[in-house]
């Protein structure tokens, strides 16, 4: 939905678009038992831009945390998004706690994320949350 602010003659018209925030990954710890997580799919047909917000922390010395954005035309067949920064969203344990966001156009029907961790054990872990901000 688009909102248009009233303007007096000579002023610019301000257009506001609706935004939606969805938690795809909610504070999951990746360790020797959990090394991969695939989120629920989200219908993104009504939106034209998205921001992916990733919060991660590491304990000990795990290897890498990889966040892969996947898209689908039908909610059944999934494809890795290789555009821009989404070709390889990867964090190393040595990077410490991080809170990062990346943005891209949204030109597909469905979206989800796959999070994978390497080098994790019972004591070498990653904890991760991923939020999706959609803008129309």
Notes on the structure:
The structure is a single chain. This protein is mainly β and 136 residues long. Helix content is 0%, strand content 56%. The protein is built from no helices and 12 strands. It has strands at residues 2-4, 15-17, 19-30, 36-38, 42-43, 49-59, 64-72, 79-80, 89-92, 98-105, 110-117, 125-135. The strands form 3 sheets. Strands 4, 5, 7, 8, 9 and 11 form a 6-stranded antiparallel β-sheet that branches. A 4-stranded antiparallel β-sheet has the order 3-12-6-10, with no helix packed on it. A two-stranded antiparallel ribbon has the order 1-2. Strand 7 (64-72) and strand 8 form a beta hairpin. Mean pLDDT is 86; it is low at 1-6.
Descriptive terms for the model:
single chain, mainly beta, four-stranded antiparallel beta sheet, six-stranded antiparallel beta sheet, 136 residues
Which helices and strands occur, and which strands form pairs?
Blueprint: E1 2-4, E2 15-17, E3 19-30, E4 36-38, E5 42-43, E6 49-59, E7 64-72, E8 79-80, E9 89-92, E10 98-105, E11 110-117, E12 125-135
Antiparallel strand pairs: 1-2, 3-12, 4-11, 5-11, 6-10, 6-12, 7-8, 7-9, 7-11
How would you concisely characterize the structure shown here?
By secondary structure, the chain is mainly β. The chain is built from no helices and twelve strands.
């Amino acid at each position: 939905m688009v909102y248009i602010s009233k303007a007096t003659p000579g002023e610019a018209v301000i257009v506001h678009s609706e935004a939606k925030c969805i938690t795809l990954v909610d504070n999951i710890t990746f360790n020797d038992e959990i090394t991969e997580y695939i989120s629920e799919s989200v219908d993104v047909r009504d939106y034209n831009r998205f921001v992916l917000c990733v919060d991660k922390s590491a304990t000990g010395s795990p290897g890498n945390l990889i966040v892969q954005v996947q898209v689908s035309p039908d909610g059944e067949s999934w494809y890795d998004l290789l555009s821009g920064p989404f070709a390889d969203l990867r964090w190393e344990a040595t990077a410490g706690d991080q809170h990062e966001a990346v943005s891209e156009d949204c030109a597909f029907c469905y979206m989800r994320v796959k999070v994978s961790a390497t080098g994790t054990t019972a004591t070498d872990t990653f904890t991760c949350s991923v939020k999706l901000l959609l803008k129309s």
